[in-house]
Amino acid sequence: xxIINQLNNIFDQYHVxxxxxxxxxxxxxxxxxxxxxxxxxxxxxPVKQNSKITISCQKKPFSTGDKxxxxxxxxxxxDWLIIDENTAIVFETKILKNTVRPEQIKxxxxxxxxxxxxxxxxxxxDTQSPIKETINNTTVKWFSWRQIYELVxxxxxxxxxxxxxxxxxxxxxxxxxxxxxxxxxxNFAGDQYNTDEAKTILKNLINEIKPDVLKKYPSLTxxxxxxxxxxxxxxxxxxxxxxxxGVEGNFKRDIHITL
Length: 259
Description:
Blueprint: E1 2-6, H1 17-30, H2 33-41, E2 52-57, E3 67-68, E4 71-72, E5 79-83, E6 87-93, H3 102-110, E7 117-124, E8 134-135, E9 138-144, H4 145-153, H5 161-175, H6 195-216, E10 244-245, E11 257-258
Parallel strand pairs: 1-2, 6-7, 7-9
Antiparallel strand pairs: 2-5, 3-4, 5-6, 8-9, 10-11
């Protein structure tokens, strides 16, 4: 298997967060053949030992397809993956739930209509696929970002070199995005407390347990409004993160759960 990386320079970052995230995932795939092969199995695409796989992007940072200010210039696929010149996968990613636009998906599919095998890879934070599995004779494969995180996490201990570095960086990048992959536990490997990381972990933990808590205690809908406040100036404690599930207004008036 021969991987041809035609992505933009890894240090040339996009203005749009969705594009940055997609580029991070594709850069990681391009540097790890085993991860790429595993990912392609979800599409039932046979990859031979002499297969040529080209990974390319259609958008350049701060140009057509990326946003300038608040306006998107043109809707084009985030990335392409071409296998042996007869199979094409176009990528569309979202970082917010319920934001997939069917007309945008159909526009992407038209661009690969002449390939023998056609796929659209859709990655979103939704809990189920927001679109049907076949459109205009093109197979749509949907993944949640949580599934992508779990896929990448399988290779943490087996990758080495640049591939290992990118996998670990991608995992951290995904975890730090609010409401993208959910609560994935707490990593105690680091030797230094990180307030931004703690804030994200706490938010994800609350989102994970809140539905179950509300089933038993429906009144515990309130919580601490801000998770980034400094502790009192006269204390000796370092800045810390905490929140709670309690009654609206003043959580201390009734039963509450503090985390």
